[in-house]
Amino acid sequence: MMNVPIMALPHCAAIPAYATGEAAGLDLAAAVPEDAPITLAPLGRAAVPAGFAMALPVGFEAQVRPRSGLAAKHGVTVLNAPGTIDSDYRGEVKVLLVNLSDAPFTIRRGERIAQMVIAPVTIVALVATDALPETARGEGGFGSTGT
């Protein structure tokens, strides 16, 4: 297990936590004021504060991903999924949500709005070349391997 320093901000509703012992993602809660929920209109979007900052180790990132229940039941998802939090970022984590349904959706304090997965990052060196090795797929793009 890796330790990640985390700092709850004054408006934090809940520190990220795993819902079960084998969950891959930590649940993120909306850190909006109790008396000022955010209502997303259909196709509306908002950067919802999560109420914490953290210090990821070099060589790791945090991926902010949608919660399947929120997407399935309400059509609300993470717009830039997965959102990436780099190891050198020290600001508040926010979740960019979008409402893809045809009804307004209200985000209340403490509501679980996304999940966060910590993952290793591979740094590569891109090397310029005039030709690439052949493959069976070649230049086949979207849908070229089937439906």
In words, what does this structure look like?
There is one protein chain. By secondary structure, the chain is mainly beta. The chain has a domain at 25-120: Deoxyuridine 5'-Triphosphate Nucleotidohydrolase, Chain A (Distorted Sandwich), CATH 2.70.40. Helix content is 5%, strand content 34%. It contains one helix and twelve strands, in the order βββββββαβββββ. The chain has one helix at residues 68-74; strands at residues 6-8, 17-18, 26-29, 38-40, 45-49, 52-54, 60-65, 76-78, 83-85, 94-99, 105-107, 112-120. The radius of gyration is 19 Å and the shape is globular. The relative contact order is 0.25.
Q: Kindly report the CATH topology of the domain at 25-120.
A: Deoxyuridine 5'-Triphosphate Nucleotidohydrolase, Chain A
* Mean pLDDT value: 95
Q: Oligomeric form of this entry?
A: single chain
Tell me, what's the shape?
globular
Structural class: mainly beta
State the CATH class of the domain at 25-120: Mainly Beta
Q: Can you give the helix content as a percent range?
A: under 10%
> Uncertain segments of ≥5 residues (pLDDT<50)?
none
What is the topology, as strand order, of the major beta sheet? Answer: 2-3-12-7-9
